[in-house]
Amino acid sequence: MQIGLVGLGRMGMNMGRRWLLGKHEVAAYNRTAEKTRELEKEGAVFAATLKDLVGKLSAPRLVWVMLPAGETVDQHIHLLKDLLSPGDIVIDGGNTYYKDDQKHAEILKAKGISFMDVGVSGGIWGLKIGYCSMVGGDENLYRKIEPLLKTLAPPEGYMHCGAIGAGHFVKMVHNGIEYGMMQAYAEGFEILQASPFKVDLQKTAHIWSQGSVVRSWLLELIEDALKKDPELKQIAGYVEDSGEGRWTVQQAVETGVSAPVIALSLFQRFVSRQKDPFGFKLLAAMRNEFGGHAVVRNDPKS
């Protein structure tokens, strides 16, 4: 199949490569031309601009957008609605909020352009292993793009989740679960690290991967990280969140679903980005005020 790919970041570039390896025709556009030239060397058609990309695709066109969620995607949806023609399809493969998908679909529908959303998981390992893909949109369109999904994913690694927004909704919850799993592993390994026993954390991660109930790909990644840096001296304990965890917690609140583990894992990421949080200082101050408990004083010179 022929596809126009917009965005050659960490995932977009390797997705393009996987399609090329699967003998699909890929026309690519990226804001910085160096990456587009890099993919051109591997068989992609180079496009200097978004308009140029559209011009190099045969109707009905298929454009896959792989860009950061939010304003960047919004801008490109508005640009594409004026460049594409009725019958063309736009696919958002990034991590867009599912309610924004529904807005984007309405914008494009007014011009006769179809929209689909695909939640993609696989990270930097996707080129080798494949990308798990969760698809939202019309089922007939899903069947139409299925050859692309089949090439992108590992065996049995893609599915039609429902109407527009469903793909990103399922991916959103996937990432919320991921937050909770990562937090549980982090806490468990910290308990091991602080124990009176000299537990080899890398070996523990390895043996837990061999048939234990808690085995997972995340555990394999923990083993790899500890192999490179056993005490993680090169990494600061500063953890960002990319949006999906927040949206999952918001969705839980909206629908009255209890999700304490996911919520706490999100809040722990907030704490990781604070230095000497005010709330913790206030806790210490209250203990000192009501019970005379000792407090650790900051050095006024520091």
Features:
302 residues; alpha/beta; 8-stranded mixed beta sheet; 13% strand; elongated
Notes on the protein architecture:
The chain is α/β, with parallel strands linked by helices. It contains 13 helices and eight strands. It has an eight-stranded mixed sheet, with helices on both faces. Helix 1 links the parallel strand 1 (2-6) and strand 2. Helix 8 crosses helix 11 (244-255), helix 8 (166-193) crosses helix 12 and helix 9 packs antiparallel against helix 10 (217-228). It is elongated and about 75 Å long. The model has no long low-confidence stretch (mean pLDDT 95).
Largest sheet: 8 strands, mixed
pLDDT averaged residue by residue: 95
Q: What proportion strand?
A: 5-15%
The helix-and-strand class reads alpha/beta
The strand order across the widest sheet is 3-2-1-4-5-6-7-8
- Quickly count the helices: 13
Q: What spatial form do the alpha-carbon principal axes imply?
A: elongated
Specify Rg, calculated over alpha carbons.
Answer: 23 Å
In total, the number of strands is 8
Low-confidence stretches: none
Helix content: 40-55%
Distance between the termini: 63 Å
